[in-house]
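Memo to structure team: turn this sequence into structure tokens by end of day. - J.P.
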Amino acid sequence: MNGRLTLLDRYVSKHVLLAMAVVLTLVLSIDVVFAIVEELGDVELDYSAAQAFLYVAMTLPSRVFQVLPFTALGGSLIGLGVMASHNELVVMQSAGVSTWRLLGSVLKPALLIMLAGLVIGEYVAPPLQQAAQSNKALLSSGVDTIQSDRGSWRRIGSEFIHINAIAPGGRTLFGVSRYQLADQAEAPSLARMSFAQTARYVEASDDEAAYWLLEEVAVSEFLPDEVRAETLAIQPWRVDLSPELLAVLLVAPDRQSISGLLRFAQFFEAEGLNADRYWLSFWGKLLQPLATLALVILALSFVFGPLREATMGYRVFIALAVGLLFTIAQRLLEPASLLLGLDPLFAVLLPIALCAAVGLGSMLRVR
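Reply from structure team:
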């Protein structure tokens, strides 16, 4: 009996995994086409079409990670749907195989997708995404003046900083602008501003802590009755901002690693800043396996319930609709939680819990 069940697991898993591969290929192809069109729109003198294609190629793992839950949903729905159309599921159930046993067979390839997602999202996609963003920023942003429409703005203590571009690894910066506010509680005003062509990280030694060394610095100091300007060849910048944190500055939170998001959220909280955006992305990536599991359960409940006799085209439509609704729910809850002050963990868990509840409820009715 155990041998037959193992053979059954392999048969079901093979069909579902093949369907997941087809769904991933189709969805990713569409996403890549739109990404290429978008990048070609940014082509200019220093950023060529070849570099645009290279950028899309380097961000491909991030795109794979983004569509893995939808891949699990569509693959499970279509793979089991094909088997249902051939009456294979009916034969299995007639032989005494329970719905829950089939669920276990489907979860095996889904578990593979979950593990692959964690590895890609933590170790593969973030460094490639960071390198792609850094290379694009270096090519697209000049270092002679501030590029406010590019780069990254951040607040650190009483300073607002803007960095035109960050080299891969975060140890070299290009076009560093600093705006320091005067220490006045009632009416804060600009006390000093500076622009450095480059900045490089100097490691800590026995004599002093690590710091940033600014090079070719233009400084303007705003005094009560005059503006004093000077140019410095070098200037030390002692700030609690490590290269590890800077390496993720140019990357959107949903494209960063789980560990990077945790470090950045803790850093923002230590600076007294709102870190909810990073906590949202942190919990979203950490709990993505649960989202994948909930979508697979929902897909199985559809196959054994209302979609048992449905056509393949209708199943594909349902997969698209459910995936779209789930994504919309996530996208709406994220800004809503930021506006309403909801806990980021609650905002991430709510659509997952609703999806799992609908799937498990449907499974119990068709058991």
